[in-house]
Amino acid sequence: MAVITQYVVVREGVEKMTFTSKKEADAYDKMLDIADSLIPFIQGAGLDLDDGRTEKLAFYLATHKDDLSSLLKGAPLAKAEPAPRKNTRKDAAD
After folding, report:
1. Dist. CA 12–CA 33, nearest whole Å
2. Which run of H or of E encompasses 9?
3. Distance from C-alpha of 24 to C-alpha of 16, rounded to nearest angstrom
């Protein structure tokens, strides 16, 4: 019989995510803490966002905290390589 160790992140009695390593679970838990801290900050901006959008924005910012930190320091955002374009033209031979 195999033994599987799992780490479960639980918030307010709700299971959020399951991981196979403690490091990943701790990182996700920290990201959720950051998102929780960002919610009142975003609400204070007076943007008139509903709670769902505020939570999504906070989660997005927390998920991309490294990029956000670089941007706030004045560094340009590292650009992802563009996806290859599909050729949508029909060939004359068709």
Report:
1. 12
2. strand 7-11
3. 13
